[in-house]
Structure formats: C-alpha cells, structure tokens
Design goal:
This protein is mainly alpha-helical. It has helices at about 5-10, 20-45, 50-65, 70-75, 95-120, 120-155, 165-195.
Length: about 200
C-alpha cells in the first residue's frame, strides 16, 4: 500500500475536534459581556461626576412606580375618620391626590436626571431641585396622613383597616416613599456640588 492510501486510511481514525457545549459557551460569552458592561458602568463615573447624582434623582420614579400597587392598597383601605365622621390628625383625606402628584413628579425626576447627566449645568440642577421639592412636600404630607392613621388606631379613635394584606402594604408604602425622598435630596445636594460651573449656553 502506497503512502497516499495509508494517509487516507489513517485520517479516518483521527479524532474530530469537539466544539464544546453551546449552552456553556453562550453563558460564558454572556458572563463576559456583563463583566464588561459593569466595568464600563463603573468607569463612566470617572468621566461624568454627575452620574451618581442623576441616578439618585431618578430613583424616586422607580420606587414610587414599582410599588404603586402597595400605595394604592394603602390609600384604598386607609381610614382617617372617627365613627362620627371627623378626621383624626388631618383636615381631610388628601392621600389620593398627593400620591398622584408623587408618582407624577417621580416620573418627571427621571427626565430631569437625564438632563443632569447630559448637560451638567446649573439649570438642570435647579429643575431637579424643583421636582424634588414637590416630591419631598407631597411625601411629608402623605407620611403625615399614614402616621395619623397609625396614631388613631393606637388611641382607639380610628377603626383598624380590615384587609389582611394592609399591614404589609402600609409599611412598604412608607419605606418606599422615605427612600424616594432621601435619594432625591441627596442627589440634588451632590448635583449642586458637582455641576459644571464653566458651562455657557450658546445662542444659535
């Protein structure tokens, strides 16, 4: 048998290289992608000192929006009146309108946060301060109403809401509103510290 035939015969028994598990390869590439994205995200803070401010200012929109069901369950079951119909701790039940304004300005804060990150100027900081001020004022009013309910229940002046899930919704609503207020205020304070003082508006 000549060398040519021997090479052909021997090639039949050569091992075919394994391509590997496609799922494992996909997970590997996806993990590498996430690592690079996270690395780029961290690095971006070095080049944009308003990044953290914008994220904090945007958080109220997420907290107020994602937990809207708990807020709705809370105000729907909330009782702020005595048996004779008079209110305890508040002049009237304003929780519905205040919650609507909270959610609305939480969404507006997402847009002002984008402006903070992109423009980095005093105008964007002032706009964020205005929307944040509305969130803080409405948040305080909302919390006062919820605390008035709690005090009324403890004093026996108000009948406790009967829904079993009300307790969890009540506290989740309180915590999320406090976080929304706190993050937005911290974000605005950082924005005042870090905004671009050399920015000049160009008329075109």
């Amino acid at each position: 048998m000549d060398d040519k035939n021997m090479n052909q015969d021997s090639s039949r028994f050569e091992e075919v290289p394994q391509k590997g598990n496609p799922v494992a390869n996909a997970l590997k590439y996806f993990g590498r992608y996430l690592k690079n994205v996270f690395k780029d995200f961290i690095t971006s803070f070095k080049y944009n000192n308003m990044k953290l401010s914008s994220i904090l200012v945007a958080l109220p929109g997420l907290f107020l929006g994602f937990f809207i069901r708990f807020h709705a369950d809370t105000i729907n079951a909330l009782v702020l009146t005595r048996p004779d119909g008079t209110y305890v701790g508040v002049p009237f039940d304003y929780t519905g309108p205040v919650l609507f304004i909270l959610v609305l300005f939480g969404i507006l804060n997402i847009f002002t946060a984008l402006s903070l990150s992109n423009k980095k100027n005093l105008g964007s900081v002032i706009t964020s301060t205005i929307t944040t001020s509305v969130i803080v004022i409405c948040g305080i009013l909302y919390l006062l109403a919820l605390f008035a309910y709690n005090n009324g229940v403890n004093s026996g002046e108000i009948q406790k809401a009967g829904e079993a899930e009300f307790g969890a919704s009540y506290w989740i609503s309180i915590i999320s509103v406090i976080i929304a207020m706190a993050t937005s205020v911290v974000g605005v304070i950082l924005a005042f510290i870090n905004y671009d003082r050399t920015y000049e508006k160009v008329d075109r």
